[in-house]
């Protein structure tokens, strides 16, 4: 079994491309007066979050990599390094991404890490870089364990994860409308991902895909972008700070405050950490399911299309 | 990529994009056209909590609202808006107007530019929250 294997650090090499594309999008929006919005502090916060994500990867990356290498040491399988194995690894890692992303919206402990990616009220290429600093603490690296145990080398898995991240960069834009139907049917696109960033009841908890939108179609979470319902970007309750530290940690602080409040049972404390975001022991808050149900009840005309219960 | 090159790229990239965005005039704060706009912005955050009276700041960057759960504030947040109930808020005066501190890690402090009379009136209106 090969222990030594290396692939290029594709995310680092993509950084100049990210910067160039952001500049192109910014100039396009300003000169054409369409295709999205930029705001200085919002963009700056997103970019600093992106830099912090890279830094946290350098500091904490050894945790996940050590875990993967430990699994690699015990698995009897080694699928090798052929192009077809890399391609299969990419597809399976994208399936892994779908589920981690879905958990990220449905389990508050994981949402605490992912929420910052949704905390901008803008949707442009800088939003793509508004990434977590605390991903290691979600322990979602365990979802990659089956890939390693099946014989995909950890370096290959991380390489495919990097390609996945790079693919998702360009879909964070309003400058691209819809792409050819065959492409929209198979691939994640700006249109599909705009829906994912929407705070409209219809668009909550939809389109978790990384690269292939087929996972959402397969698992019943696909919602198309509706021409008659413009996406409202951001969180159900938007932040009131551009401070990157507060953006990175606000949901962790909220969990801590909820879990440690007096008078709760042990189960209630656990639920504040692992139940869907918006769960509360006294029903004083709303989960996305409750928001969708209320929306369906209160606005009967909204029933046309996907994303609302009862349709 | 060597780490020092990556760091230089990231630092220059962030600074360059931020400066260019500012030079393009994209740093201005949103403005509430009128009370209806402030009301709509409030309902965007609290769709189940209809505002009663809406008091728009003279600079139109913030508005106080009354609700059945107590006073709330909707304010400019960059080019957008956000809102909070003022439950547990601490309100103090400063040279520019008012500073509202909330027991909320995601919106800890809101600085409002108000003239003296306005600041005094808003302090009274928010008095129930403290």
Automatic annotation (TrEMBL), chain A:
One of its GO terms (biological process) is lipid biosynthetic process. Residues 86-221 form the Fatty acid hydroxylase domain. It is a multi-pass membrane protein. It is found in: Endomembrane system. One of its GO terms (cellular component) is endomembrane system. Its main location: membrane. The chain crosses the membrane at residues 12-31, 43-75, 81-99, 147-170. Pfam families: FA_hydroxylase. InterPro entries: Fatty_acid_hydroxylase, Sterol_desaturase/TMEM195. Keywords: Lipid metabolism, Membrane, Oxidoreductase, Transmembrane, Transmembrane helix. One of its GO terms (molecular function) is glyceryl-ether monooxygenase activity. This is Fatty acid hydroxylase superfamily protein. It comes from Roseivivax jejudonensis. The lineage of its organism: Bacteria, Pseudomonadati, Pseudomonadota, Alphaproteobacteria, Rhodobacterales.
Automatic annotation (TrEMBL), chain B:
The keyword Transmembrane applies. The keyword Transmembrane applies. The chain crosses the membrane at residues 6-26. Keywords: Membrane, Transmembrane, Transmembrane helix. This is Uncharacterized protein. It comes from Roseivivax jejudonensis.
